Prior knowledge:
The complex is a heterodimer. Chain A is α+β, with helices and mostly antiparallel strands.
Amino acid sequence: MKFKADRATLLKALAHVQSVVEKRNTLPILANILINARDGRLALTATDMEIAVVQEAAANVSQEGATTAPAATLYEIVRKLPEGVEVEFEHGGGDAALVLRAGRFATSLNALPVDDFPVMTAGSLPHRFSLPARMLRGMIDRTRFAISTEETRYYLNGIYLHATESEGTPVLRAVATDGHRLARVEERLPEGASGMPGVIVPRKTIAELRKLLEETSDEVAIALSDTRIQFSLGPVTLTSKLIDGTFPEYERVIPRGNDKILRVAKKDFAEAVGRVAAISLERARPVKLSLARDLLVLSAASPEHGTATEELDGARVHYDSGPLEIGFQARYITDITDQIEGEVEFLLADGGAPTVVRDAGDMSALYVLMPMRV
Amino acid sequence: MPLASDQAPEHRRIIHIDMDAFYASVEQRDNPALRGVPLAVGGAGPRGVVAAASYEARRFGVHSAMASLRARRQCPDLVFVAPRFEVYKAVSRQVHAILACYTPLIQPLSLDEAYLDVTAPLLDRGSATAIAREIKMRIRAETGLTASAGVSYNKFLAKIASDHRKPDGLFVITPQIGPLFVANLAVAKFHGIGPVTAARMAALGIHTGGDLRGYPLAFLIARFGKAGAFYYAAARGEDTRPVVAERRRKSLGAETTFARDLTVWDELVSALAPLLAKLWSTYEREGLSGRTVTVKVKYADFQQITRSRTMAGAIISPAMIERISFDLLRPLFPPRRGIRLLGVALSHLDAAPDPPARQLALALA
């Protein structure tokens, strides 16, 4: 194998694939990326056996072939090469070393056999549709914070993506929950998605996908089966296993009858929550919301540091139901307000009941927040 | 904060897990020379008591709580080993971690026994029996030890069930067979009926659950007091006691004896750090909430003093314990004699006037 490619192209390609590689590996081959030079193109593949990312890039291939080399080392070397330089890769086949030359720099990297590199097969992916990158980003950003990290309920360790109907309109929904809060985002169902099974996309896949989405504004092609999902973003293809489990019937935990409505300007509210919560460094301490007509008092207490309160009144708060007190973890509130633009709407029942939070100006997302018993 | 299932008693799924000859099995696991040998864990001395006996020893009638001298008479080949409670505790924690995958409602009775309420399990395996089977398998795989499991619809029957096929047993008592099973069971086998009560019952002609069932509640209460009500229900295979996952801890402490007596404040400050770290990690892991910090100082002449302070609110950070400990210890310096031991303890664990706020959970299926 022998090819040349420019540093910028290589660096970008390596950056995309290398983050899939687990830092600590039991199998040495999993620390490597597969380098495949063929048909005047270069394909780099990294996998952790759950996810595989393949990146194609332009290259000047003088001899076709393939090998594997340590991802982290390769990335580090290419990153440190001078800008604009052309990099030459040469590999003699078998267990020969991979030689990399750039200008007067040369390195010889230990390669591992291509046959040892685990191939992740996607199998047949009968359901195919596409989403604008911006829309997919929005669905991820507004749900991923609620993904559970608790391993016993492994079926919550991802985003549940499924086709359903919302008030008679077919929608594609993304849902995540950690058992304390739930985030549900829906968009118009794209063509081709109507027969898709509900799938749970693992957290790491979401994180990798989100990084890739940072750099594109094109359509993302999505193909899936019961067990695999594949995202194609131009020259990059991410294939992932899906979580083999049943996502709970989440609709049951979304309250329908909450009739006490609080509306509050997001910026003022989020900043006040941040200030009040600063009294306690404990992550799980609650911020208490005390509500009266057009008045919201935020308070927090720490047995060690003291107390803090802030009032938000008529100009920024609309509430015309009876007095109510309810406590939430500050971070749970800000995770949601981070995703809201203008006005936050709370639909409350009482201090111990699930509360619905929405962006008053955008009904595509809905959040359910469980209070803390204070 | 005690947890308890709010399910109606008749719909519960209870598992009783009982490690087989626990201490003895751990010793046999860790020392191949002890395998197949009649073994007693406990003190061999004249005042020693058998803490646990291996199945080989039990064949000679050796059982736990028996005086070691008597055990030796009954089984002259009996091998004694000293107990290693730290190891048993570690294994017990391993087992507890397995159990905790299936339900938060775990009531440990000792290091080797626990009740689980799996009416609403965290990991659904289709049935309580399937959960019990998986737990046994995992205990075997992860600790190399066997456990017996009893599955039933209440604690009384779950415990009887785990005893029924020991060792390495799994037995299920369904609501259909429960009453009949109890009717045929000797009352002496009822947990909660000891030899004395069994003898009193025998004097009344009560030998089995069926016999017991013939007596009205009022009679049993008159004869046996409050326990009579339990016997009355038990004879019908009924037991409404919930599985209560409670923390019984009243205080939590850590102490250390120094290789060389301390006299300087800075030395004490550095000696305190690892103690507090240890204390805090347990405090945090167990989700405790305490208000009182007590420091203990033992001088070179073995005179011991304690100083304590109770806060208005719960202690919620290691810095807080450190500050209070420093406040309590500083007046003791310079010490009259060298300090040989330093201890720190947290107490008032249940009496927090400001209970920690509790995050409520969504009612996901």
